[in-house]
Amino acid sequence: MVALFAVWEGAVRFFGIREFLLPAPSAIWAATASVWPTVLQHTLATLGTVLGGFAASVLVSLPLAMLIASSPAVSAALYPLLVVTQSIPKVALAPILIIALGANEAPRIIVTFLVAFFPLVVGTVAGLLATPPELIELGRACRAGRVQELLRIRLPFAVPFVFSGLKVAAALSVVGAVVAEFVGADAGLGYLIQTSMAFFRTPLAYGAVVILALLGILLFQAVALAERVFFPWSSGAAQAPPAA
Amino acid sequence: MIRLDAVGKTFRGRDGVPVEALRDVSLDVAAGEFVAIVGASGCGKSTLLRMVAGLVAASTGTVALDGEAVAGPRAETAMVFQAPTLLPWADVLRNVTFPLRLMRRAGAGTEEKARALLDVAGLAGFESKLPRELSGGMQQRVAICRALVQEPRVLLADEPFGALDALTREEMSLELLRLWAARRMAVLFVTHSIPEAVLLADRVVVMSPRPGRVADVVEVGLPRPRSFDQEASDEFHRCARRIRDRIFGERAARAA
Ligand SMILES: Nc1ncnc2c1ncn2[C@@H]1O[C@H](COP(=O)(O)OP(=O)(O)O)[C@@H](O)[C@H]1O
Ligand SMILES: [Mg+2]
Predict the structure, then answer these.
(1) Nearest-angstrom CA–CA distance, B26 and B61
(2) Which of B197, B178, B109, B194 is nearest to B149 (CA)?
C-alpha cells in the first residue's frame, strides 16, 4: 500500500503529469484536507445513505429468503422477479425513482438497497437449503413444526452464509449510494466527485474516491467483527461446513 | 412394547420406479429388551428404525408402541444417528438439552441431568465446548447423551458407532451397556459388526437383502453384565457363526 503510493507520487513528479489528469497523493491529501469540514459533511451524508440502504437490505432480505426457502413454489414465483430487479441498470432507475418519490433520501436508499440486497437473499437461501438432512430429521424426531424447524435449525445453520451475504452487501451498499448520488443529490461523496470533476478539481475527486474505499473497508470489517463477536462458531464455517 | 406386524415399505424412487425396501417384517420387542439388527447395506435397517421413530409411514402392516399405532414422532422414543448430527452453533450442553428444549419439556432439572449424563460419558469439563472442538468419538457420545437425557422408553440407534475406530467403538459399546443397564429402556440397535451385535444384544435380528425381511432371530444366551472376555465363550461363537452363516450363506447361494 505504502509502496504503491510512493511509486504513484514518484511517477507523477518524474513524468510531470498534469494535476487534472492524475494528481499525486500529496496533492490529493492537500486538496482534501484544505476543505475538510465540507468533505466531512459529504462523507456523513453518504454514510447515512449507505447505512440506510444496508439496513433496508437486511430487513427485506432475511424474511424474503425465509419465504423463498419455505417452498419450491414460492421460490419459482419470486426468484424471476428478483432477477429482473438485478438486470435493470440502477443508474437508469435512479432518475425515475427521484421523479416518483421526490428529491429526498428515500430514492437514494431504495437505489442502494436494490444494488446491495440480492447477494444477501441468495446467500441466505443457500444457507437455509444447505442444512444437512440429518439435522432436519433430528428436528422432526423432536416433533418440531415447520416454523420451529426454520427458526431453531435452518436459520442458525444459515448464519455463516448470511454473513457472507452481509459482507458483499456492505461493500455493494457503498457502490449503490454513490450511484444514487451521481444521479440525484445535493450532498454526498458521489455528488462531491461530480462537482469536483466539473470544475477540474481532480485531486478533490480522488480524495472522495479514497474516502469511499475506506468506507467500504470499514463497513466490511464491522460486519466481520460482528460475526466474530456474536457468532464465534460461524467465522470461516461457510467455506468449510462441518462434516455432517 | 414395540410390535411390528407384517410391515412392508415401498419407496417411490426419483425416477418413479418403486423400490421395495421391506417386506413382511414382524417383530416384537419387550420393554427393556436390547435387540440388535444386522444385515447387508440397503436391506432396510434404517428404514425400519425410522418407521418405529415415526419418521416414515409403513406402506403395509402396522407399527405399534404399547398397542398404539405409531403415526408420528413420539416423546418416548429417541434416536441416535450414524453421524453425531450435532448443532454446530451450540455447545455440548446445549446440544444435549436441545431436544427437550425443542419439545418444551426442559425443566429446572434438565441441565443437571444433562451434566450428570455427560459426566458418565466421560465428557465432564467439555460442557461449553463446540462440537467441532471434539473428536468423532466424543461427538457421538454427546449424541448418545442427547438421546438418553430424554429418558426414552425406546432407544433407536442406527449404526451409532459406525464411524468410530475399533478401540473407541469397543469402549463405547460397554459404556452404552452400562447406561442401558441403569435405565432399562427397549433398544433397537443397528450395526454392521456381528461381534458387537452378539456382545450387546439379548436377541439379534438378521435381515436378508432386497427386499428386507427377517431371515433369522438369534437369542444370545450370554449372562449379563457383558464383557469382552465373553468373546472367547462357546455361546458367543455359536451366535456369531449362526449370524454369519445366515448373512453369507444367502450371499453364497445368490452367487451360485
Ligand atoms: N427416502 C427414500 N426414498 C427412496 N428410496 C429409499 C429411501 N430411503 C431408503 N430408500 C431405499 O430403501 C432401501 C433400504 O434403505 P435403508 O433403510 O437405508 O437400508 P440400510 O439402512 O439397511 O442400509 C435402499 O434400497 C434405499 O435406496
Ligand atoms: Mg442405514
Answers:
(1) 9
(2) B109
CATH of the domain at A191: 1.10.3720.10
**Ligand 1 centroid from CA B20, angstroms:** 9
Q: How far is CA B152 from CA A38, B99, B155, B188, B230, in A?
A: 70, 12, 6, 12, 29
Ligand 1 neighbour B137 (Cβ under 6 A): no
C-alpha cell recorded at residue B137: 468419538
Question: Separation of B248 CA from ligand 2 center, angstroms?
Answer: 19
- What residues of chain A lie within 8 A of the CB of B132, using their CB? 233, 242
The residue whose CA is least distant from atom 21 of ligand 1 is: B46
Mean pLDDT for back-to-back runs of 10 residues, chain A (244 residues): 88 86 88 90 95 96 93 90 88 85 87 94 94 93 90 94 95 93 86 90 91 94 93 65 42
* Domains, chain B, with CATH or none: 28-58+72-76+155-256 (3.40.50.300), 86-151 (no CATH)
Cα–Cα distance, A146 to A155 (Å, whole number): 12
pTM of the predicted model as reported, rounded to 2 decimal places: 0.84
Q: Which helix (H) or strand (E) holds B39?
A: strand B34-39
User: Which ligand has an atom closest to residue B21 CA?
Assistant: 1
CB B207 within 8 A of CB B162: no
State which residue of chain B sits closest to A234, comparing Cα positions. B89
| A153 close contact with B: CB closer than 8 A | yes
Using the Cβ of B132 and the Cβ atoms of chain A, whether some distance falls under 8 Å is answered with yes
